[in-house]
C-alpha cells in the first residue's frame, strides 16, 4: 500500500502508470541491460510497457524513487 500510494503519486505527476515508472527505474539500475515482462498478452500492454523505456527520469526523480523504496529496502524479514 505504501509503495502504491507514494509511487503512484510520483508516477501520476510524471504522466506515467506506476508499472511504467517501476519498469523505467529498473532499466536504469546498474547491471540491468534488459527486463523481461511476463504477463503482457495484448499489444496494448506491450505498447504501454514500451513507454517506460522512453520515460526520462531526472536525478531528482530517481532520488525520490529511492526515498520511496527505502523503507522496503531496509526491511529484513525474520527467517
Radius of gyration: 13 Å
Shape: globular
The count of helical stretches stands at 4
Distance between the termini: 23 Å
Helix and strand run: HHHH
List the helices and strands and how they pair.
Layout: H1 2-13, H2 18-27, H3 43-54, H4 59-73
Helix pairs in contact: 1-2, 1-4, 2-3
Give a quick summary of the entry.
The chain is mainly α and 79 residues long. The chain contains 4 helices and no strands.
Characterise the protein shown here.
This protein has helices at 2-13, 18-27, 43-54, 59-73. It has 79 residues and is an all-alpha fold. The two termini are 23 Å apart. The radius of gyration is 13 Å and the shape is globular.
State the main characteristics.
globular, mainly alpha, 79 residues, 4 helices
Amino acid at each position: 500500500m505504501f509503495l502504491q500510494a507514494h509511487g503512484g503519486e510520483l508516477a501520476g505527476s510524471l504522466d506515467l502508470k506506476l508499472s511504467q515508472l517501476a519498469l523505467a527505474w529498473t532499466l536504469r539500475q546498474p547491471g540491468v541491460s534488459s527486463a523481461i515482462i511476463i504477463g503482457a498478452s495484448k499489444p496494448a500492454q506491450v505498447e504501454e510497457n514500451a513507454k517506460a523505456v522512453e520515460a526520462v527520469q531526472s536525478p531528482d526523480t530517481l532520488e525520490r524513487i529511492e526515498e520511496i523504496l527505502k523503507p522496503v529496502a531496509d526491511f529484513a524479514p525474520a527467517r
